[in-house]
Input
Amino acid sequence: MIEWFDDLALGMRFKSGSVQISEGDIKRFAAEYDPQPMHLDEAAGAKTPFKGLAASGWHTAAIAMNLAVQIRPFGPHPLIGMGVDELRWMAPVRPGDTLHLEGEVVGLTPSRTKPQGIALVKWTVFNQGGEAVYTFTPIAIVPRRPQST
Output
């Protein structure tokens, strides 16, 4: 079981359960956080490059965050970040899509001065067809195992 930075290894992989996205989910998120036509109305969305109703990219990011928290890649420790690298939206998320999250540890840097390390996990959200729809690599702060005295 992973509890500390020291338990992580390059190439380690994580996979979440799935979540299905409804039209109501898309419209509710958009109404509050990203009220643009392609996220609120099918006909308006049809007139955009999305060619229909599509979830806000920030909605997809929030779903990915929720799935990452459920995975608990750093054991009991919260997911605390210093930023995000390589954030990309590759394909629209549509009503009825079923999404899951997969991650791979791609970087581990222990701190020289603090009891922690920086872990880079490249996360990718996939739809039910296996198509990558979103990817991001947070710069996570993970505590190191306490030294016994």
Q: What stands out?
A: The two ends are 23 Å apart (CA to CA). The chain has four helices and five strands. The mean pLDDT is 96. Helices lie at 23-33, 37-40, 42-46, 57-71.
